């Protein structure tokens, strides 16, 4: 049976770069690894072997050149391309090359492991006005930074780290576990590839020190609670020359004394007097851009909501400005004088004479109550 084309197996073209070939191989190795497909009758193992053999050839520039010119026959003549699935080195390469980058560090070309610094989180509290208009805020972030005394090496000034005698400076050791050969971080140097006999007095051999840094955060207009700003490379410093992590600033908008926010819309409660609700009038209403006049019609009931279009906010996700919803609350007079109480009683008596003409909701409610009790009696 004719062997399949290696490019076809990996799903790449002949012009694919080494990075593209490696990426495709990793994907196929993860997908078809026998440990993840134990119940498919050996189909995945066959695909796994094919992908491994194809990658062993195409990752090697000389083998790839031979294969491109003469195909499988050329490789057989030269003794190449027979990697297959068997052999401790082949399986170990898979674990180190494919899974190493996923679970931290990686072999980095067979050298000592480098470690990316940890990502950090910071909660930034803003008032509503700054969240709506945007601002630049300075924050103090405690983090791990590279030690300036030893330059991040961890060794005392004037000395340098020594090659690890356990792993030979590679940072990894190979452990044989039955059929599999598993590559893991060296237990002696913890993947660094070096050991320190005379540690730096400032960082005590860690290569990093704890320090509080002041950073400037540009907050875009329209942010809301839960939004996050990523500051690339502003997290903890990496180890062994690894890149720094990122800082994620999570925003929290403080509760406002007047407004409640729902996305692009704002809401507020507006107290109005009994006479203004009865006779109508104009009420001064605050917005984030200054006061506006709200016209209240005669006979306005408590709880009535007025919508002021375009008086809300613009969010980071939508350039359209929201609305302001103002709910009026008719305020009951308190601490009345005797004269005011007398006038109010006279007013109440005159209103009762008009029946449901003056109090349609109250009359309707009374009728509903009568209907309810008649129904259950």
Notable characteristics:
Helix Hairpins; HSP40/DNAj peptide-binding domain; 3 domains; 377 residues; alpha+beta; 24% strand; 9 helices
Written description of the protein model:
This protein is α+β, with helices and mostly antiparallel strands and 377 residues long. It has 3 domains: 6-85, Helix Hairpins; 120-155 and 201-253, Urease metallochaperone UreE, N-terminal domain (HSP40/DNAj peptide-binding domain); 260-374, HSP40/DNAj peptide-binding domain (Sandwich). It has helices at residues 6-10, 18-32, 43-58, 61-78, 88-99, 128-133, 274-279, 338-353, 360-376; strands at 120-126, 135-146, 162-163, 172-177, 180-185, 194-195, 208-219, 228-231, 247-253, 260-262, 265-273, 281-285, 292-296, 305-308, 324-331. The strands form 6 sheets. A 4-stranded mixed beta sheet has the order 10-11-15-14. Strands 1-9-8 form a 3-stranded mixed beta sheet. A two-stranded antiparallel ribbon has the order 2-7. Helix 2 runs antiparallel to helix 3. The longest helix has 18 residues, at 61-78. The chain is elongated and about 110 Å long.
Low-confidence stretches: 79-110
The chain-level structural class is: alpha+beta
Note the total helix count. 9
CATH topology of the largest domain: HSP40/DNAj peptide-binding domain
CATH class wording of the largest domain: Mainly Beta
Mean pLDDT metric? 82
User: Would you identify the CATH architecture of the largest domain?
Assistant: Sandwich
Could you outline the blueprint of secondary structure elements for this entry?
Elements: H1 6-10, H2 18-32, H3 43-58, H4 61-78, H5 88-99, E1 120-126, H6 128-133, E2 135-146, E3 162-163, E4 172-177, E5 180-185, E6 194-195, E7 208-219, E8 228-231, E9 247-253, E10 260-262, E11 265-273, H7 274-279, E12 281-285, E13 292-296, E14 305-308, E15 324-331, H8 338-353, H9 360-376
Parallel strand pairs: 1-9, 11-15
Antiparallel strand pairs: 2-7, 3-6, 4-5, 8-9, 10-11, 12-13, 14-15
């Amino acid at each position: 049976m004719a062997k399949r084309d290696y490019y076809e197996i990996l799903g790449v073209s002949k012009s694919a770069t080494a990075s593209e070939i490696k990426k495709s191989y990793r994907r196929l190795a993860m997908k078809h690894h026998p440990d993840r497909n134990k119940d498919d009758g050996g189909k995945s193992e066959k695909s796994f072997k094919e992908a491994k053999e194809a990658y062993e050839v195409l990752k090697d520039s000389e083998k790839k050149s031979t294969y491109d010119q003469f195909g499988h026959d050329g490789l057989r003549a030269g003794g190449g391309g027979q990697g297959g699935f068997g052999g401790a080195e082949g399986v170990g390469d898979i674990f180190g090359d494919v899974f190493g980058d996923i679970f931290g560090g990686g072999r980095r070309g067979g050298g000592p492991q480098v470690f990316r610094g940890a990502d950090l989180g910071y909660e930034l509290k803003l008032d509503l006005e700054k969240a709506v208009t945007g601002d630049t805020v300075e924050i103090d972030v405690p983090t791990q930074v590279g030690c300036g005394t030893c330059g991040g090496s961890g060794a005392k000034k004037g000395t340098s780290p020594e090659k690890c005698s356990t792993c030979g400076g590679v940072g990894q050791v190979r452990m044989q576990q039955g059929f599999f050969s598993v590559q893991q971080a060296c237990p002696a140097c913890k993947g660094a590839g070096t050991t320190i006999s005379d540690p730096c007095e400032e960082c005590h051999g860690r290569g990093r020190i704890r320090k509080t840094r002041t950073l400037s955060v540009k907050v875009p207009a329209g942010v809301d609670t839960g939004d996050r700003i990523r500051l690339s490379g502003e997290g903890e410093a990496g180890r062994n020359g690894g890149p720094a992590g990122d800082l994620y600033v999570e925003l929290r908008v403080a509760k406002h004394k007047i407004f409640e926010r729902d996305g692009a819309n704002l809401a507020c409660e507006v107290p109005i007097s009994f006479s203004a609700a009865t006779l109508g009038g104009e009420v001064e209403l605050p917005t984030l851009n200054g006061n506006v006049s709200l016209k209240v019609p005669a006979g306005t009931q408590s709880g009535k909501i007025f919508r002021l279009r375009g008086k809300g906010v613009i969010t980071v996700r939508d350039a359209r400005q929201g609305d302001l919803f103002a709910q009026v609350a008719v305020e009951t007079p308190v601490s009345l004088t005797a004269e005011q109480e007398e006038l109010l009683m006279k007013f109440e008596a005159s209103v009762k004479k008009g029946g449901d003409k003056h109090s349609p909701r109250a009359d309707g409610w009374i009728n509903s109550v009568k209907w309810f009790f008649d129904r259950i009696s």
